[in-house]
UniProtKB/TrEMBL annotation:
Cofactor: heme
Keywords, sorted A to Z: Heme, Iron, Metal-binding, Monooxygenase, Oxidoreductase
Origin: domain of life: Eukaryota
Gene Ontology MF term list: heme binding; iron ion binding; monooxygenase activity; oxidoreductase activity, acting on paired donors, with incorporation or reduction of molecular oxygen
Keyword Transmembrane: no
Name under which the protein is recorded: Cytochrome P450
Parts of the chain that traverse the membrane: none
Entry binding sites for heme: 443
InterPro entries: Cyt_P450, Cyt_P450_CS, Cyt_P450_E_grp-I, Cyt_P450_sf, Cytochrome_P450_fung
Pfam families for this protein: p450 (PF00067)
Record keyword Acetylation present: no
Length: 502
């Protein structure tokens, strides 16, 4: 749901009315002059009095609407909505410049999700400051490109299990999701899960679903009128406080329960190597100092939510694209057969030997980025992007989808699946540069995610020819190239068949 769709329900109308009043108070913030000499604000559609650009906000798939605006106003756009300044970055240059700034390491403050549900304890929402810095340091120790080599075995095993089952399962997407969830839970805690009905997975999925819901603009009035958080939970209409309290409890369980299991296993000497056990070992040996244990459990708890849907969605985009693209499959399979042979499945170390498969992976990341408008940042100080003034407290949106439409000099249409675009001269921007964010809040799971996606895609191509589903008469059902209108998107449900290769 985009911002203007708020106007369709009464709760939202109340929210907008209240926000209009609030905007009068905040108006000074959006109109004040640049502290960076005479630099102007970025251009954008002309705002109306009080509501600003509320009516200009794209109704659906905001990434598409913002990209269209960029055609008129250029890569950096400025909008003012109900007193809040929003800056959208639509080119690789401005996205990299902007997100790389120290002043953009903040996240927008969310009353319900951040404070009441307590997602501010997790790495994705924790405000910029010493705690976030400690979370990053911990993640870097255990997930830097050389440390994650320790996890490729876990990833490969989980993928092999999934590949074996795909020939017979009617639920291919469930199988892929289990493979991703399994490898992340085992990597983080050393715990093996069987399926998506595992209690940890159920709890984590509930928690992150609640977060996704709370992030829908206008979902909670308290995000517009923060003082509502002070009303008691029993008060009529305070159901948001009861809902938030429930989520908070589940978030505590999600972070603390598996963490406790690792500690018990370590005490009895049975804990396998994992993200958590390696960091707890570091604390015990003194190589990691000044970090409360609870930071480790908070970071660990975030990794499931940060990693599962993003990785799963990228694999689904790959499957959707290649199911109607036999040419690309045949070319990739020829490369795999020639370089690796048919006796074994590809492993991570084969990556350097498979340039076409690598380009398929890049193209899957580019074709429809799973976080099309990234994760919003907050400017914690005045700054400058692309030569424009960006005031403190602006919300900055990196439009990764707009960057993914940049054709480079290949001339190949952006909405067609052509891995060749990354092998020709003048390639488009590399998705590994923009699809994971940049700078102090960039994705800490980038290497581990990219490794998983490579092994999974190479193994799928080596094992199966992927075709569209068929109707009762055996005719192919051409899938729709359509993605959900959600902040973390994935293809709309589609059918496909996995035909084992000889
Ligand atoms: C294809 C896979 C993935 C994609 C496309 C992706 C994308 C992103 C993006 C766009 C951000 C926001 C970055 C920013 O604000 O600049 C992010 C943040 C994050 N990602 Fe990923 N991600 C992926 C996989 C993973 C995995 C596998 C993990 C964990 C193992 C993970 C954990 C996180 C965390 C914890 C953050 C928050 C970082 C912070 O706020 O400091 N991600 N990711």
């Amino acid at each position: 749901m985009g911002l203007p769709s708020l106007l369709t329900d009464s709760r939202a109308i109340a929210a907008v009315a209240a926000a209009v009043l609030l905007s009068v108070v905040l108006a000074t913030r959006t109109t004040r002059t640049s502290s960076h000499g005479a630099l102007p604000l970025p251009p954008g559609p002309k705002p109306l009095p009080l509501i600003g650009n509320l009516l200009d906000m794209p109704k659906q798939r905001p990434w598409v609407g913002f990209a269209e605006m960029a055609q008129t106003y250029g890569p950096v756009i400025s909008l003012s909505v109900l007193g809040k300044r929003i800056i959208v970055l639509n080119s690789v240059e401005t996205l990299v410049e902007g997100l790389g700034k120290r002043e953009l390491a903040g996240r927008p403050h969310l009353v319900v999700a951040g404070e009441l549900m307590d997602f501010n304890r997790t790495m994705v929402l924790v405000p910029d400051g010493p705690e976030h810095k400690a979370h990053r340091r911990l993640s870097h120790i255990a997930l830097n490109p050389s440390a994650v080599q320790a996890f490729t075995k876990i990833q490969t095993e989980s993928i092999r299990r999934c590949i074996d089952r795909l020939a017979t399962t009617p639920d291919y997407d469930k199988e892929i999701r289990v493979a991703v969830a399994r490898s992340i839970v085992e990597m983080v805690y050393g715990i093996k899960i069987e399926g998506i009905d595992d209690p940890f997975v159920v709890c984590a999925d509930t928690v992150f679903e609640a977060l996704g819901d709370a992030l829908v603009p206008g979902r909670y009035l308290a995000d517009v009128i923060p003082m509502l958080k002070l009303i008691p939970s029993w008060f009529p209409g305070a159901h948001f406080k009861r809902e938030a309290a429930q989520v908070r409890k589940e978030l505590d369980t999600m972070c603390d329960y598996p963490f406790g299991l690792v500690k018990e296993a370590m005490a009895s000497g049975t804990a396998p190597y994992s993200f958590v056990s390696s960091l707890l070992d570091g604390v015990k040996s003194g190589s990691i100092e000044g970090v409360p244990e609870e930071f480790i459990s908070n970071v660990a708890g975030t990794l499931y939510g940060g990693g599962v849907d993003t990785t799963y969605s990228t694999i689904l985009t790959f499957l959707l694209a290649v199911s109607i693209n036999p040419r690309v499959q045949a070319k990739a399979q020829e490369e795999i057969d020639r370089v690796i042979g048919k006796e074994r499945l590809p492993v991570f170390e084969d990556r350097v030997l498979l340039p076409y498969v690598r380009a398929v992976v890049q193209e899957a990341m580019r074709f429809y980025p799973t976080a099309p408008v990234g994760v919003a940042r907050l400017a914690t100080k005045d700054t400058v992007i692309g030569g424009y003034f960006v005031p403190k407290d602006s919300v900055v949106i990196p439009n990764a989808w707009a960057v993914s439409r940049d054709p480079g000099s290949s001339g190949l249409p952006a909405d067609e699946f052509h891995p060749e675009r990354f092998l020709n001269a003048g390639p488009p921007p590399d998705p590994s540069v923009y699809a994971f964010g940049v700078g102090r809040r960039s994705c800490v799971g980038q290497t581990v995610g990219e490794n998983f996606v490579f092994i999974m895609i190479a193994s799928l191509l080596a094992s199966y020819t992927i075709l569209p589903a068929q109707d009762e008469e055996g005719r192919d059902i051409k899938p729709k190239l359509a993605w959900l209108d959600t902040t973390l998107t994935r293809p709309e449900p589609f059918g496909c068949r996995f035909v084992p290769r000889a």
